[in-house]
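Chapter summary example.
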Amino acid sequence: MVDGTVFVGGNDGSLRALRADTGAELWRYRTDSRIRSSPAVAGDVVVVGGTDQSVHAVDADTGDPRWTYDTGFWVLSSPAVADGTVYVGSDDFSVYALDGVDGRLLWEFRADGEASASSPAVVDDTVYVACDDGNVYALDANTGAERWRFETDFVIHTTPAVADGRVYVGGSQNRLYALDAADGSVRWTFDTEGDVHASPAVTGDAVLFGSDDGHVYAADRATGEERWRFPANDWVRSSPAVAGETAYVGADTGSVYALDVSDGRPRWRHRVGDRVSASPAVVDGTVYVGSDTGVHALDSGGE
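The structure predicted for these 303 residues follows.
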């Protein structure tokens, strides 16, 4: 969201700009594919990937095309933008750095597996990205050179969360890892009873994340010890969004929950009617969240 506008992609191949206050459509940009990633805003440009094997950049005010970059396969990864550069992964096993102005290729890093389900996280001069080859990579943001990799035996679908020198990431082995951002060594692990497909959120001294075992968890950032768990009673593949002392998260039950960050107590629950796997965004007291059939704007106080 930017300047009162919400940008959202859909399986009909359209990128839409909606008024944040009413949901009215301002413009629509059509692709020849499904859009299954979240758009990113780079200045006056909105960038999104699609199953047409392309990264699209459109004017944020008008929806007019600015540039398109073709990769070798689907782009399910949500782009990350830092210092005018667009970083995005593709199912062709590559991570790309593109010039945000004209889409020119700056560098390409070739992984050992699909780089599309996890989106890059850019912190300072390092790009952190997880891939279906079971590796977490740290890349030089300027050159794409590999700084380190952490190898697992499972598929990783979550976008790394990076804070205070640690990288938090989960995957399909029922586990969340805390890695040292400098060298990729393991600080601690947290085991659940289901795959961790939801990207974690870091807040205060805790890491919040969902699991396919039907729970939202809070782990201590320093030790990995469990702080609390909340039963959502279905897969939690929505990444928590934290605003103040409240975490907002969706579940496959079709519900959006507002949870107290300190102890996991539910403050309110709102049923949208169908699966919520998208991550909420909280702006000016409103929670914006996508479901399988639409976009919903909810009062953050539950009213």
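To summarize the output: DSSP finds no helices and 30 strands in the chain.
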